[in-house]
Design a protein that fits this description.
The protein contains four helices and seven strands. By secondary structure, the protein is α+β, with helices and mostly antiparallel strands. The protein is globular.
């Protein structure tokens, strides 16, 4: 599970800075502290419990400066999934459920858009208890545990929905992006009903 999590980080652009790299010591010194959390998932039908590891930033040690624009999700992923995948589910279409779009609405912070070009490089460090060494990784986007991770992920989902023809609504003339089901709608002309 531990190796699988690091393989996932690597596959999603959180490249490891190897110990023999010239800048390893510098990157280790400036890296944000992280940790890997271990858990057991729910048992499957045969009673087996899958092991899971999640690399996270130690957010309590790396809070953004005062005044940084952060926010918490206001809509559950289930509500968004129902809106995107099963519109008007209480009055089904005669031909069956209507699928407007398929969007991954899991909390997949590793799949958030990368930092914009020109952003200074930042790193995370994780203690490897098996190999007794630090693993230093380039930070491509905000990692789980960061107070900016949710904002980055919801901005990514927002861009995906807009690219599929959805329109963004605003609550009380607020310029903030809302992913609340009440404000997500696809223009009728583009609806594949």
């Amino acid at each position: 599970a531990y190796d699988a999590e690091h393989a996932s980080l690597e596959a999603n652009g959180f490249t490891e800075v190897l110990q023999d790299d010239d800048d390893y010591e510098h990157c280790l010194r400036i890296a944000k502290p992280g940790r890997v959390i271990y858990s057991l998932k729910r048992a499957t039908s045969d009673g087996n419990r899958r092991k899971k590891c999640r690399a996270v930033e130690q957010g309590h040690l790396t809070k953004s400066p005062i005044g940084t624009n952060t926010y918490s999700p206001v809509t559950s992923h289930e509500e968004l999934r129902a809106t995107v995948l099963r519109p008007n589910r209480n009055a089904p279409h005669p031909d069956g459920p209507r699928l407007l779009a398929k969007v991954d609405v899991c909390t997949a912070y590793l799949q958030s858009n990368s930092f914009p070009p020109g952003t200074p490089k930042t790193y995370h460090k994780f203690w490897d208890p098996f190999r007794k060494r630090w693993i230093v990784r380039f930070e491509r986007t905000h990692l789980y545990g960061s107070d900016l991770a949710a904002k980055s992920w919801y901005s990514t989902v927002r861009e995906q929905l807009l690219a599929q023809g959805y329109q963004q609504g605003f609550a009380k003339d607020s310029p903030a992006a809302n992913l609340n089901a009440e404000y997500l709608r696809k223009p009728a002309a583009n609806c594949p009903c």
